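WARN retry 2 of 3 for item q-0093 after timeout on previous attempt; input resubmitted unchanged.
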Amino acid sequence: QVQLVESGGGLVQAGGSRRLSCSASRSIVSIAIMGWYRQAPGKQRELVATITSGGSTNYADSVRGRFTISRDNAKNTVYLQMSSLKPEDTAVYYCNGKIPSPSTAGWDIYWGQGTQVTVSS
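OK item q-0093 returned
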């Protein structure tokens, strides 16, 4: 199993930048896909960005061009660089990882506890 711990959340003014970090308890090269999701008050959790072990990235339309997901394998950490932040980006941001199951022919999915990002106008 793997533990994921997010950090870097906080209060930022609109137009500002913030970098979130997700630290894994094991080598992230063994995790097929890692990503960031977010959930705003009263709304459903939504995909923000993903990155595969091969480095392929995917972004939600709402953040494309403003957010960048990256990884540092040596530090077992995935980052989300957020720029040009808007009040509508306010949400709890969750780190996510998918790893092949050691006991089944499927996948195990892991979530961090989340970190709050608040963007003020």
